[in-house]
Write a structure and sequence with these properties.
Layout: E1 8-10, E2 17-19, H1 20-31, H2 39-44, E3 50-54, E4 57-60, E5 65-68, H3 71-74, H4 83-93, H5 107-119, E6 126-130, H6 133-150, E7 158-162, H7 171-176, E8 194-196, E9 200-204, E10 207-212, H8 214-227, E11 231-236, E12 240-241, E13 247-248, H9 253-264, E14 267-271, H10 285-288, E15 295-298, E16 310-314, H11 316-321, H12 342-361, H13 363-379, E17 385-391, E18 394-399, H14 415-425, E19 428-429, E20 431-433, E21 436-439, H15 447-464
Parallel strand pairs: 5-19, 7-8, 7-11, 10-17, 11-14, 14-15
Antiparallel strand pairs: 1-2, 3-4, 4-5, 6-16, 9-10, 12-13, 15-16, 17-18, 18-21, 20-21
The structure holds pyridoxal-5'-phosphate.
């Protein structure tokens, strides 16, 4: 790995030598506006710039090494600088970096579409590429709306979502999500959507082991009975609602929702942007649950966390409704310049090949079980952890003054952030969600690295909140 810190240049203002690490910080502080970030707070904090990565580890411009505890925002699968993914990328780079999917095609894109349909439950035979999770959701929503127009039911235009749902930050995705604080400001520009309650998490021994969906499904039955004839689609994140803080659904919940949607003639959109590609164990949650949605949204781990690529899979019957002469105006007029980029598609193919063999060897299942055990041992009776929720390689620790406190810490204390900043001193990168710590490691971590992840999290927690 080349060290960025080793390179030097000159500060144009003073003429003095400026090493590359310092230059990154100077340029960043002067010019970058970071996502989901209060920049005043960010500019007051010590900056950290990543220079390189290897496996589950990232190295900063000062040469300090960190475990990537949030998989570079929930994307990384086989680790950084993976030899197989690197080779696939370089091989494609030797052919062509980008060629459009508007009217043309290319081998990695076509092959990836075929591979995704083989991975998906039977019936999802068409793949529409885009380049981020919110985009994949927009595509599914627009396809559903247009389908009902094309089939003579334009009044079916409403959307049902799950309370607490997060589907991204574009206007359609914000409209159907329910992220309160994140999106409240933009409500006046969003279209209306109705939300039904999420399953309730049940706690035993400090760890949420199950969720109860009775009230949630009852509410959905009532909603569908009243509104199905005006509803185009229902969207949900199956199994785990990630950005809501790893909210768990009980096994069978998605199947029940799918059956209700089918019975009421409402499209089901499954947003597996976060949960797919081994994050919870199976390569696709819907395949594991034997549910064929009408639309399936994929992104994040699709390229193993290497490049921006997303896909919306749709049922053949939906695709067929869009066929007709040019003059019929039935085409789906939606697209992005870099849709189905060949570099990203080539890496996605290598990622899926590698994931299939990990899955077949049972390697993932072993690691997931180990992660669950370690979390249990360390946090299920930790005095500062009010609730632990975990499924697969996705966990949330809700911090509180004590295990039975009704209230959390005052928001202004930024306790979650303080713990994450302290974790850096222990060589660990984490991102908080308020005062919840989210642990979402790359799938490549072995048992000893998972032990380090949990141990370093506990060290940071005990430093900031000693008992
Ligand atoms: C379930 C889900 N859907 C959609 C998105 C949005 O994806 P992107 O950030 O790539 O637009 C996210 C992002 O975290 C997500 O968790």
């Amino acid at each position: 790995m080349t060290s960025v810190a080793a390179e030097c240049s000159t500060d144009p203002a003073t003429g003095s030598a400026l090493d590359a690490g310092v230059r990154v910080h100077a340029d960043d502080r002067r010019h970058v506006w970071h996502p989901f970030t209060q920049m005043q707070e960010h500019l007051a904090l010590p900056a950290l710039a990543i220079a390189s990565g290897q496996g589950g580890w990232l190295t900063d411009t000062e040469g300090r090494v960190y475990l990537d505890g949030n998989a570079s925002v929930w994307t990384n699968v086989h680790g950084h600088h993976d030899p197989d993914l690197d080779a696939a990328l370089l091989d494609q780079l030797g052919r062509v970096a980008h060629s459009t999917m508007l009217g043309l095609t290319h081998a990695p894109g076509a092959e990836l579409a075929a591979e995704l349909t083989r991975l998906a439950p039977p019936g999802l035979d068409r793949v529409f590429f885009s380049d981020n999770g919110a985009g994949a959701v927009e595509v599914a929503l627009k396809m559903s709306f247009q389908y009902w127009q094309l089939t003579g039911r334009p009044e079916k235009s409403g959307v049902i979502g799950l309370a607490g749902g997060y589907h991204g930050d574009t206007f359609g995705a914000m409209s159907v999500g329910d992220s309160g604080f994140f999106h409240a400001r933009f409500r006046p520009w969003c279209f209306p959507a109705t939300h039904f309650p999420a399953p309730l998490c049940r706690e035993w021994d400090g760890r949420v082991r199950q969720a109860d969906a009775t009230a949630s499904l009852d509410a959905l039955r009532v909603l569908l009975a009243a509104r199905a004839d005006r509803t185009a689609c229902l969207i949900l994140e199956p199994s785990v609602q990630g950005a809501a803080g790893m909210r768990l659904q009980p096994p069978g919940f998605v199947r029940e929702v799918a059956a209700l949607c089918r019975a009421h003639g409402v499209h089901l959109i499954l947003d597996e942007v976060f949960v797919a590609f081994g994050r919870l164990g199976p390569l696709l949650v819907c395949a594991e649950e034997a549910v064929t949605p009408d639309f399936l949204c994929l992104a994040k781990g699709l390229t193993g966390g290497y490049l921006p690529l997303a896909a919306t899979l749709a049922r053949e019957e939906i695709f067929s409704a869009f066929l007709g002469s040019y003059a019929s105006g039935r085409a789906f007029y939606h697209g992005h310049t870099f849709t189905g980029n060949p570099l990203a598609a080539a890496v996605a193919l290598a990622n899926l090949r590698k994931l299939r063999s990990l899955d077949a060897a049972g390697t993932l299942r072993g690691r997931l079980a180990c992660f669950g055990r370690l979390l249990d041992q360390t946090f299920s009776s930790h005095p500062r952890v009010r609730e632990l929720r975990q499924r697969g390689f996705a966990a949330a620790l809700d911090l509180a003054p004590s295990r039975d406190s009704a209230e959390g810490f005052p928001a202004g204390r930024r306790t979650g952030l303080q713990v994450c900043l302290r974790a850096r001193d222990h060589g660990l990168l984490l991102r908080p969600l308020g005062d919840s710590l989210l642990l979402v490691p790359p799938l490549c971590l072995d048992e000893s690295e998972l032990g380090e992840l949990v141990h370093r999290t506990a060290l940071a927690l005990d430093d900031v909140l000693p008992s």
